[in-house]
User: What shape does this take?
Amino acid sequence: MDAARLHDLMVTAGSMLVAIAVLGALGALIGEVRLRLRRRDRFAQAPSTLVAPAGSPSLIEPVKDAFKRLGHHTAVRDPAKLSVLRNKLIQAGFFSREAPVIYLGARAAALVAATIGVVLVLPLVVKGGGAAAVCIAGSFALMAMMGPDQVLNMRRRSREREYADGFPDLLDLLVASVEAGLSLDAAVSRCTDELARRYPNLVIHLRFLVLELRAGRSRKEAWSGFADRLGFDDARAFATMLRQAEDMGTSLGETLTVFSRDMRAKRMLRAEEKALALPAKLTVPLILFIFPCLMGVLLLPVVYRMMLVFPK
Assistant: This one.
């Protein structure tokens, strides 16, 4: 394929993408205008006793509303997939009922932004930008497809680390509270107050658990929901242990003591694993940064002396 034909093909493709983007923008604009007209008519029919809230609206709210409207057009219809997405968002710390819609809207906005970026990069490719322009366009597409998921996974991993650090402390406090004569529900409420400053994200899930227990949900279902919200293997094992202890009628204090001892042993093993992995992780920085500096410090005086001994 010669250069002229390739140029015509890329111009045609770029024109089609621009036309699609313009049509999509027009459709979004028409939908927004219709939504605003419908909202104005509804407010005009509302009673005059309604008072607007005081204070200026936050700058985040318009962006959130835009993502929400965009997410309604791309919402997941399968209930199973929606439930999985909602669990992921809860594990990442997004507890709102509208979080899946906002997340889908953010993904759609990222795809639109990446499409616009690729369209803007096309003239550079046509003019001979070469591999750099192709890499830029590929970076836009890659960030749009994987960026939101990576941000979500990063938040989930950071919270999982906090859960792994705080769960043994939670079990120790539960053991102390139960042995002091409190019931398990009262012990959870007490631990929530004690851990609020050290593990705030874990305490949020504990407060949800306390509210569910106070609302009358069974202990099995409440602890199973707690483990699902955490997405943490030790929490699932703890919920299974409580269910088995309740079914078999075993002593709750002894069961908590054994499980707490096991959790402390696991935390110590994780610390030892990190300590043993440290030399292997330091090998690359030593080779890249410290070893060249050490060689320079050792060899430069020798080179200088040899230059003095063997002048030109």
User: Anything to note?
Assistant: The longest helix spans residues 252-309. The chain has two domains: 3-41+59-155, 161-268. The chain has a mean pLDDT of 76. The chain is about 85% helix and 0% strand.
